[in-house]
């Protein structure tokens, strides 16, 4: 980051964890001196509406009112991603002020996004945790789970299965393992669908579609409250919000269910 000059101009991203500051439902825009930001630390992380987007170093004492990044999922994908980038960079800089090798202070490098130890020279880059997320189809049905964190006495949200990739594991192995661990179901025909940065705080969601092979639902009770097969042509439970890769996976799978059911009628 650099010290802001009075005439530095653009949109300004203030973050606190996975929350950010909006002024009249928009990122603040203007010159640093006009917005009273002279002397603060900031770095340009991209563009917003064809102007520079600056990430401002998180302020320890800040009376601004912040909103959750999750509440902005309805934004265009490119805009949501650049905000996620800012949140993740902020998380990285906050959690890597000291060297993980020798414990001395680090400083941000000038030539690339990294921090380097001022004592031993060890360099660290932003940490991204790969996670898989998968929609499983069985004919005209989709497998959806109500995770314990989403449970509500009136039902709560049902979504696809997901989990972190373990050391030495391929994405496909992680997909098979997570589905089996959480539901006891074996799957086949695993294929890549898409990905989504997920800044809560630093995940990369890698999405897959898969087909049911065999097995009966057996819940991993420490993680899952309920899991069921839902037919595409019957009422569905509460689903993840628009803008999430889970939402895209579910609706793509429902279309596949519909297509297979229609094919059987021909």
Please provide a written account of the structure.
- A motif (Nudix box) lies at residues 163-184.
- Its cofactor is Zn(2+); Mg(2+); Mn(2+).
- One of its GO terms (molecular function) is hydrolase activity.
- InterPro entries: NAD-cap_RNA_hydrolase_NudC, NudC-like_C, NUDIX_hydrolase-like_dom_sf, NUDIX_hydrolase_CS, NUDIX_hydrolase_dom, RNA_Hydrolase_NudC, Znr_NADH_PPase.
- Residues 126-253 form the Nudix hydrolase domain.
- Strand 8 (106-108) and strand 9 form a beta hairpin.
- This protein has 266 residues and is α+β, with helices and mostly antiparallel strands.
- Strands 1, 2, 3, 4, 5, 6 and 7 form a 7-stranded mixed β-sheet that branches.
- The protein is elongated.
- Helices cover 20% and strands 37% of the residues.
Distinctive features:
single chain; 266 residues; six-stranded mixed beta sheet; 18 strands; EC 3.6.1.22; hydrolase activity
Q: What low-confidence regions span 5 or more consecutive residues with pLDDT below 50?
A: none
Helix content: 10-25%
Order of helices and strands: EEEEEEEHEEEEEEEEHEEEH
Summed up, the helix count is: 3
Distance between the termini: 62 Å
- Compute the CA-based radius of gyration: 22 Å
Mean pLDDT: 93
Structural class: alpha+beta
Report the biggest beta sheet as strand number plus sense, adding barrel if it closes.
7 strands, mixed
| Shape descriptor | elongated
Share of residues in strands: 35-45%
Number of strands: 18
